[in-house]
Amino acid sequence: MAILDNYLRPRMTMQRIIPMVLWPISIMMILQRSIILAVNGDRTDDFAPVYQAALRFLNGQPVYAENLDTVDPHYLYPPSGTLLMAPIATIDPERSRWIFIAASVVALLACAYLLARLFGFGARSWVIPVIVFFFFSTETVAHTLIFTNFNSFVLLGMLAFLLLMRSRHDLWAGVPIGLTLAIKPVLAPLLLLPLLNRQWKILVTAIGIPLVLNIVAWPLVVDSNSFVTRTVPYLGEARDYYNSSIAGNGAYFGVADWLVVLLRVAFVAMAVFSLWFLYRYYRKTDELLWLATSTGVLLVTEFLVGALGQGYYSMLLFPLLMTVFLPGSTMRNWPAWLGVYGCMTFDTYYSEEWRSFGWMLEYNKVTWGWSLLMIAVFCSLLFRYLDMRRDGVASLDGRPDDTLDEGRLTNDGPGGGGGRDSVATVEK
């Protein structure tokens, strides 16, 4: 009977079952998101203004002369970005857009591989199909493809930067983040990380590349001064459409200015404490957890507190989400993942029966998602700190604490078992 059982019930490990289930589903999702949804497009087209700006640049025409008072997507890249994006206008717009979509899909697949590598998983690991499935299930990836935005390449540059930074290839680490900064400076807050980790050489290339490219591009763009006089002031304004930052959300719903300021200050304070705690207790004991979590904290704070935060920026939080595989992760609690749902879900909440309620949920879900994610990370770290103080472990005079060991931080907390780790009882 045992011999017969080998034929009737062949054994398969979960490492084989998970890829077998997720790869065909993921491949079909990739094809549907790229060939159908992305090619179809939507009401928002982020590619068209970039293409038109590149075309004007190649023809020696003004690049920054568009009307910024409309709600249409605007061209906001600096002259260095104009120089780098110019090749897209060497062919017709339709084929150029299709090639850009295809390149974005390839970049996302490369991101899945680099993210797995960053956390120690190989090319044949079951984790990669899980990452790919999760990527293409989210609104952030779907709308990046549908709107044909540059975000996929920003994520690729960020992951290459983190990998090279961890492996101490400092000058090379600055190259990918420097190229993204030359086009879209959304990753600028991450330059704090090599500064804190005393990897000064990263800043040479990270700052030098966009600086040199702007010096080269400045005389080539006929109205480069308009970027400073018109575009930069516009970037500092909190517009009340397609903006999920606190200021943008407040402007759309008519929230009082004092409350907007209070909320922004509160989230900055949460970020300062979180970055301090992560730097003090994790940088030397678990550099990957410090690096990935600090990256998430810096970016969520930028999205919430800055002038512009758009929902598809959430893909830059994938390294923070991936820390769930690490002991001591601030993502090991349900409120954090409720926040992830809010800022990454492809679900819509428009309701025919409850119009006002559905409209409010739809227009607030990204802001609430980022906020809940930030609060969950902050509370997780704050409760650890309070437990350490209670048990006499944390040094309150600011000196290094030799009594604090890695195991007590990354496993069950002081005294073992339970403890407070977030806004709910969670696994440490």
TrEMBL record:
Bilayer-spanning residue ranges: 21-39, 98-115, 121-138, 171-195, 202-221, 258-279, 368-386
DNA-binding as UniProt keyword: no
Region annotation Disordered: where it falls in the sequence: 404-428
InterPro entries, alphabetized: GT87
Pfam families assigned to the protein according to its UniProt record, in alphabetical order: GT87
Cellular component, GO, one term: plasma membrane
GO molecular function (one): hexosyltransferase activity
Membrane protein topology class: Multi-pass membrane protein
Location, primary (coarse class): membrane
UniProt similarity note: Belongs to the glycosyltransferase 87 family.
Protein name, entry field: Arabinosyltransferase AftC
Taxonomic lineage from the root: Bacteria, Bacillati, Actinomycetota, Actinomycetes, Mycobacteriales
Annotated gene: aftC
